[in-house]
């Protein structure tokens, strides 16, 4: 089976397609034929050797990226009780989704209802859990509050806008002008260009900042949080600096690392099936062109989600 791997950390061209042997199935495992794999910034950061992800795999190269998987069961291992051949599944895996086939324990993935498109299911697990946990568990967003979402047009942000609206919040969405119609279509109450100083100065203070940009941008957005307000800063590499600056201003601050949670994934899938939100897929790349997908995600200006297909 074809698989994208890196032999060493480096730029996007480190991703090369290889032919790998299919591992035999153990008890309770299924083989999933990948329909789509989600591409996330963590994939590119880890490939480049940055952050906690790279630390975790540095002694295990070659490594195949990809945490977001959607596919169908193509082989059943012994003692599998939950699934049948052809069942459509989605969820988070611990790497290796950039592969034609992935071996998973039958309890690792969840079923996709027939009414939900493959592409929607492929893009929801990592980005959706981050948006949901960020707004609810870490941000404690309440109905009637104002939330500022930075990077509102991106993979996590476009889901967060829709979820925050569903929770009854007033959503202020930050993005480039060419994304303003898109962000309004997600339900944002106010859409602002983060490069427009006048627009930014005129913004009324918010209760919660959901910072998906971090770094200098995250630091400067703290001035828009009301005294006693809250910030959740999501990019881990700059989280300590944003949290320290927030605390100096009397803002309650937290970083986060999304965790896998099958109950929450089932809840998000049900919400997708009921059209409570949707996943915007801006581009699908063939597996062999994973390097192009990484170059795009590394621009920091992707709308919605990118997917790979075999
Ligand atoms: N800690 C965790 O567990 C966790 C989980 C998921 C993601 N993350 C991190 O969270 C961040 C966001 O992830 P993502 O998947 O949503 O990324 P993404 O899809 O690559 O985000 C792209 C978006 O960022 C926007 N953007 C870029 N610079 C901006 C700025 N200065 N102000 C406002 N918006 C800006 C772009 O908007 P325009 O094109 O309109 O400029 C674009 O729509 C990444 O750093 C990722 O690694 C962390």
Automatic annotation (TrEMBL):
The keyword Oxidoreductase is annotated on this UniProt entry: yes
Keyword Oxidoreductase: yes
Entry superkingdom: Bacteria
Keyword list, A-Z: NADP, Oxidoreductase
Name of the featured protein: NADP-dependent oxidoreductase
Residue intervals of the Enoyl reductase (ER) domain: 10-308
UniProt xrefs under InterPro entries: ADH-like_N (IPR013154), ER (IPR020843), GroES-like_sf (IPR011032), NAD(P)-bd_dom_sf (IPR036291), Quin_OxRdtase/zeta-crystal_CS (IPR002364)
